[in-house]
Amino acid sequence: MSRVAVYGGTFDPVHIGHLIMAQEAIARLKLDRLLFMPAHRPSHKRAPGLVDVEHRVAMLRLATRGISQCEVSRIEAERGGVSFTVETLETLSRIPRVELHFLMGQDSLGEFMRWRDPGRIVELARLVVVPRGDQDVPPLPPEFRRRVVYLKPPRIGISSTEIRRRLRRGLPVRYWTPDAVVTYIFRHGLYGTGRRRA
Fold it and tell me: What angle do CA 164, 169, 172 make, to 5 degrees?
C-alpha cells in the first residue's frame, strides 16, 4: 500500500510552519507522498480577501520545490466553487492500493462534526491532528477516535494571518516563508504590497 497524506488548507500564503508540519508528517507516518491541497474556496472557514487559488498554487510550488515526497495537487483548484474534503478524498480513494491520511489542525477538529459527511471522511482517511498549544482535545464519537492520530511537531509561532498583517504594515516576512514565496508576493503585489520592494 502507498501511504499518502492530504494537507488541505487555504495556504494564504504558505509559510515555514506548514513546511515543518509536512516534513514531520512524512517522517513520523512514513509517508510515500504528501499532497498540499489548496482549497479553491474553503467551506468551513471565512476567508475574506482570499488570494486567487492560482497564486496560492504557484507559491506552494515554489515553497515545496526540492522536497521529494511533497506535491501540490490541483484537484480542488480545478473543481472550483466551495471545496469539500469528502469529495477530494473520494477522488483520491480511486487510486489503487492507497492508504489515505488527512492532516488537520486541532482547531479544525473542533469543527469537524459540522463538516460535510464526517463519517465518510473517517472511513476514507485516518485523521492526523496537529495539537495547538494547550487546547483541550474536542470530544469525538468513539468510532471516530480510533481513526485519529496526534502528531506533535515543533511549535512554530507563525501564521498566514500574521504574515498578511505584517505585509500590509510594511514589516519584513523573510524567514517566515521561503524567499521564493516572498519574491513572488512582491512581484504580484499580493497582500497590499503594491509597488513596495521585497
Answer: 75
Highest CATH level, class, for 2-156? alpha beta
pLDDT in single tens digits along all 198 residues of the chain: 999 999 999 999 999 999 999 999 999 999 999 999 999 998 866 667 899 999 999 999 999 999 999 999 999 999 999 999 999 999 999 999 999 999 988 878 888 999 999 999 999 999 999 877 666 777 788 888 899 999 987 888 899 999 999 999 999 999 999 999 999 999 999 999 986 665
Give the E-state strand segments of the chain in sequence order: 2-9, 33-38, 70-72, 98-105, 125-130, 148-150
* Cell of residue 49, nine digits: 480577501
Nearest-angstrom CA–CA distance, 171 and 185:
13
Edge to edge, what strands does the sheet with 2-9 contain?
A: 70-72, 33-38, 2-9, 98-105, 125-130, 148-150
Domains in the chain: boundaries:
2-156
Q: pTM for the complete prediction?
A: 0.91
3-state secondary structure of 66: coil
Residue partners of 182: CB distance under 8 A and separation at least 6: 173, 174, 198
